[in-house]
Structure formats: structure tokens, C-alpha cells
């Protein structure tokens, strides 16, 4: 009986991973929740010594106001086009990564393609040596901010290590209290195997944050999102976070990872040496699944938002993300990552549960 209930609800919205549309259901509201790595969104001021010197007019990239404004406008245009039939106003929430400071986040939401949406945002300065942070944008007509808290990643075996803080943002989405944990886990610098302990530690911190939230509020809706620098089937996502690909196999205080099957099908959000990775993930807490009955918000699907205009066309990089820079050349592009998005459905009336 539970499987029939889940099937009936998810049938309300048909979401494909390749088309930029979603069939609009009746009798409720669909909310989009997206994530986008913005690839080195730095301003032009060298205020972090050697770590951001290249992103200045005197640096190797000759990063000036014209290039900065073009990138801001490009990214704002990409976010503005994260729309579907059921979410014509765009996502309710967009997590972002690789932003230098609050100033660039403010410039992004005030850029012409997004200005009319009057997006709110949450940003926190992290101790990351490169000076990049995560942040969260939100449609204030759909999401009401309650609180936010940054979480520092401390690694006992490497106490001097500094990376991005994990940003936990809590607010009201529809009738539900939702907490979103925005991540940008440590990179694969030095190789995947050598750097994996850093991401295992990051996953343990994320899991601790989620468990603490559920301990205080067992019915809390929780979403984990970010550039995890690991693929969905890697140990950090499966063994530590406990992500599963079958919604019927997810307990209330566990996570569905819809990207496992998407990546297994050969799709991804970024490429490395010609191979697709899917680092940009959004994991869904079990309370958002209808079988678990805790939330009025119901997860319905996930999609890589590989919009045609943010892709490269022709040549050896055909179909890959259109980057800002490659091989030392300014390409006038967007990012080296595609955005990802999940969809939540809030029925106008209570759904009868078994």
C-alpha cells in the first residue's frame, strides 16, 4: 500500500533529467531547490595575498571589471533560467559555491537578470585559504528565513587544515520547517585516494549536523546539497552519509541520493579528462518522502539542469560546461559545473497516508 501512495504522488509531476520542463500538477505547489558551483566568482580586488592575486587586473588572468561584470551577468542569467512549467518563477532556494565574499553575492542577486526577483541571501566568510565560500539564495516570497549557522570542519590529524565552513540555513518553505546544509567539501588535490579522508571527515560533520537537527525536531525536513568533490557512489556519500538510491529503502532519519542512478547512467555535472563526474549533489532527508509521513513537502524528482546555452558546442568539448577560463584563455562562459535541482510538492490539502 505504501508503494502505491508514493507512486500516486510522484506521478503528479513527471521530471526528466534531459528536458527543461516539468508537468504542472493541480491542487498544490511545486518548489525547486537547486545547487550551482559558480567557478571562482572573485571580485577584482586582491585582498587575500597570493591566493587571489590571479583574480586581479595585475594577475595572470588580468581579471578586470569588464570580465567580472560579464561573469556576474552570465551566472545571473543561468540562475534566472532555472525554470520549469511547474516552477515558472525559478527555484525557491539556490545553494551556491565558490563565491569570494558577500559583495559578489550581492552583485549577483542585483544583476539585471535576477534583480526583479528580489532574492534574499545568506553568506558567511569561511577560513578557506583560497577565500571561497558557500552561500544560499532564496525567494523571499516562498522561503522565510529563520536562522543560519556555520560549522567549521576540524580534522584532528591535520589541525591546521582550512576549508569551507558548512552552512546550515533554516526557514519555512510552505508549511514546513526546512533546514538546508550547503557544502563544498575538500578537493581532490593530490589525488582521490590521498585526499579522501578529508571528505570522509566532511561527510561525518554533515551527518552530525543532520542528526543534531533531528534530535531536536524528529520531523524536520532536511536537505544536504553542495559540491561534494565525490561521486554519489563514493564512500563519503554512501557509507558515511548513508545515501541510498531507493526511496522505499530510506528511513525517516536517513537520506535518498537520486544522483546514484543518474551518474550510473553516464551523466554528470563536470568532466575530468573526458570522464563525467557528478559532484554537485542534493540529498533528500527521509522525512521528505511520503512513506515516512513527517512532512507536507514531498520529494518528486531530480534533474541535472544542463541548459543548452551554458554548454559548449562543437569540437572535443561538445556538450560539456562552458567555462570562464580554460588553458589560460578567457572563454566568456559560465562555470565548469552544471547546476542540479530537486523538486518538492506541497499538496493544497492533506494527502491521506496509510
TrEMBL record:
Protein name (record): Endonuclease
Signal peptide: 1-22
Gene3D superfamilies for this protein: Endonuclease/exonuclease/phosphatase
Keyword list, A-Z: Endonuclease, Hydrolase, Nuclease, Signal
Stretches assigned to the Endonuclease/exonuclease/phosphatase domain: 33-344
GO molecular function: endonuclease activity
Keyword Disulfide bond: no
Organism of provenance: Paramuribaculum intestinale
Amino acid at each position: 500500500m505504501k508503494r502505491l501512495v508514493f507512486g500516486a504522488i510522484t506521478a503528479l509531476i513527471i521530471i526528466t533529467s534531459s528536458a527543461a520542463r516539468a508537468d504542472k500538477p493541480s491542487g498544490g505547489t511545486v518548489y525547486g531547490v537547486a545547487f550551482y558551483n559558480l567557478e571562482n566568482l572573485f571580485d577584482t580586488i586582491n585582498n587575500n595575498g597570493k591566493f587571489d592575486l590571479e583574480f586581479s587586473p595585475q594577475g595572470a588572468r588580468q581579471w578586470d571589471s569588464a570580465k567580472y561584470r560579464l561573469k556576474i551577468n552570465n551566472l545571473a542569467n543561468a540562475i534566472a533560467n532555472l525554470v520549469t512549467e511547474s516552477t515558472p518563477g525559478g527555484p525557491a532556494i539556490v545553494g551556491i559555491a565558490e563565491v569570494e565574499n558577500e559583495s559578489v553575492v550581492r552583485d549577483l542577486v542585483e544583476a539585471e537578470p535576477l534583480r526583479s526577483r528580489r532574492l534574499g541571501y545568506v553568506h558567511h566568510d569561511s577560513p578557506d585559504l583560497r577565500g571561497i565560500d558557500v552561500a544560499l539564495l532564496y525567494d523571499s516570497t516562498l522561503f522565510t528565513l529563520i536562522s543560519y549557522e556555520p560549522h567549521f570542519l576540524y580534522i584532528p590529524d591535520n589541525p591546521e587544515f582550512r576549508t569551507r565552513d558548512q552552512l546550515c540555513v533554516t526557514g519555512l518553505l510552505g508549511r514546513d520547517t526546512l533546514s538546508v546544509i550547503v557544502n563544498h567539501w575538500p578537493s581532490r588535490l593530490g589525488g582521490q585516494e590521498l585526499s579522501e579522508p578529508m571528505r570522509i571527515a566532511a561527510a561525518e560533520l554533515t551527518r552530525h549536523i543532520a542528526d543534531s537537527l533531528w534530535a531536536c525536531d524528529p520531523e524536520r525536513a532536511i536537505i544536504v546539497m553542495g559540491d561534494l568533490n565525490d561521486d554519489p557512489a563514493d564512500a563519503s556519500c554512501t557509507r558515511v552519509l548513508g545515501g541510498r538510491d531507493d526511496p522505499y529503502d530510506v528511513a525517516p532519519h536517513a537520506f535518498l541520493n537520486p544522483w546514484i542512478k543518474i551518474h550510473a547512467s553516464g551523466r554528470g555535472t563536470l568532466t575530468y579528462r573526458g570522464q563525467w563526474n557528478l559532484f554537485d549533489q542534493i540529498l533528500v532527508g527521509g522525512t521528505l518522502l511520503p512513506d515516512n509521513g513527517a512532512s507536507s513537502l514531498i520529494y518528486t524528482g531530480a534533474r541535472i539542469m544542463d541548459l543548452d546555452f551554458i554548454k559548449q558546442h562543437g569540437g572535443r568539448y561538445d556538450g560539456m560546461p562552458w567555462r570562464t577560463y580554460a588553458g589560460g584563455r578567457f572563454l566568456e562562459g559560465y562555470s565548469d559545473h552544471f547546476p542540479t535541482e530537486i523538486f518538492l510538492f506541497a499538496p493544497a490539502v492533506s494527502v491521506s497516508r496509510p
